[in-house]
Protein 1
Amino acid sequence: MENVTSFDTVGQYNQFNNNETAHPLVSVIDMSKAAPRSHSRQRFAFYTIYFKEVKCGNLRYGCNYYDYEEGTLVFLGPGQVIGIENEEYFQPKGKALVFHPDFIRGTALGRHIQEYSFFSYEAHEALHLSESERRVIFDCLDHIETELQHPVDKHSKTLIVNNIELLLNYCTRFYDRQFVTREVANKGILERFEGLLNTYFDSDKPQLNGLPTVAYCAEQLHLSANYFGDLVKKETGRPALDYIQAKVMDMAKERIFDPKRSLSEIAYELGFKYPQHFTRLFKQKVGYTPQEYRALN
């Protein structure tokens, strides 16, 4: 079984990278101080944001690989595993911001940290920064580092947390920009999504597995559920679940026109376990029950 090095504290990770620990729950790590390394699989008990300035082989995140170019940000939530697949030793460069969940507990950021969905993105969904965006990110890191070097007072935690939140808000903006600048690639994903749904409903999968979920569609398209959901919402203006349900309703309308099919039969064909669930969703989305819609048409 493949070995994974676990880091339970910020101090352990600082020591691993030859950095001093100024605060036990938060750190800005200079990766150039770390010893050269090759193959490595690591698990963190804290939030980690990597900014890499060197191409360092294939980055493995979960079961996927990503040819990790310089100048990208990768986000990891607590408990996630990441690693570098490289036969040769390389010298890490760049910065890493790490902060423990306990550090933001009780703050506004702690209450809303789940809204930053990119902490659950896959490595190949990393944030690629322009030169001006890099300067913004490094400015935020510099402010955090300055506070960590300042003698602790009653303002220290508030200022550090505010700067972490500011950095995350900038990352949200930059991801919005990335969704736009990769519009062609994104439209290709939407076309595959539409094709995936068509193929699904033309098969016996609905009867066997039920309605397709967002997680299922994301997996089939080799994307994380969060990235896929964010991409669909940016491109269509509605959540991925709404998109799937709209597709189901379109399929239902076509089949309702066939008087030889009972409404219960249509419900089961589409993947509903119970016909009343089909009736409820149809009324919610269309404004009529399936029976009323059939009578109107």
Note: Confidence is low (pLDDT under 50) at residues 56-70.
Protein 2
Amino acid sequence: MNELHGAGVALVTPFNADGTVDFDSLAQLIDYQIDSGMNYLVSLGTTGEVATLTKDERKRIWDFTVKQVNARVPLVAGIGGNNTAEIVEQIKNFDPTGFCAILSVSPYYNKPVQEGIYQHYKAIAEASPLPIILYNVPGRTGSNMTPATTIRLAKDFKNIVATKEASGNFAQFNEILRDKPTDFLLISGDDPATLPMMALGAVGIISVVGNAYPAQVSKLAALCTAGSFTEARTIHNALLEITDLCFVEGNPCGVKYILQEKGIGQDYVRLPLIPVSANIQTAIKAEMQKLK
């Protein structure tokens, strides 16, 4: 799965003032990512506000994204949730044309035990026509997928090819890297952890801040891949504050405001999210000036 090396971005879903999907801005965003060197795109991950999209909207966004990308870079679809049977049904009805993999988040809210997480992904792996990327993000799901479960899934299912790890637990990263099959990939799911994770052996990042700063994030990943960590550290440090501001009042609220300031879409989000406050807008503008 060389397609998953380097920098990927979890695309935001732009909206119009009336709440409908802004496909013109989505096209602009996709071209901005590709033209800036992003290695691959993820359509409808958490950052895409998939939880508030209808079934029809998801299909329209995927179809549009495939057409707009036009095979210029690899494309990953986000299909995950906490109702295993529903996710399996979504995957069975999903048109995989134009996609190289499916990113599926560990079940949230239910707080399953490890065997439940294993059985959830087993059902997905058996139904999927595409390779699967696990996604562990305990801060959102309310439960952690342990390294033992990750490794068990990687060894038992050949089409489970990678994990996007956003646990922030370096002991966990070390254990995965030590015990994983040779061709199983560890991907950073947290922008500030990209450099140290890649120094350990991760192959890249699925980024949020990359929506707004794709050239910097893709260069950071490329430098880390090349072992140029001193040079990469300069980009890493420069992006720390703007990345924090992206999340302080919810994701993708912050990064949508940055994109608006860059002339790509508006900062509309769907409830229960709301746009960032005036104080955060001011802080973002100040940080954007520094990054110029």
Note: The CA atoms of residues 212 and 259 lie 6 Å apart.
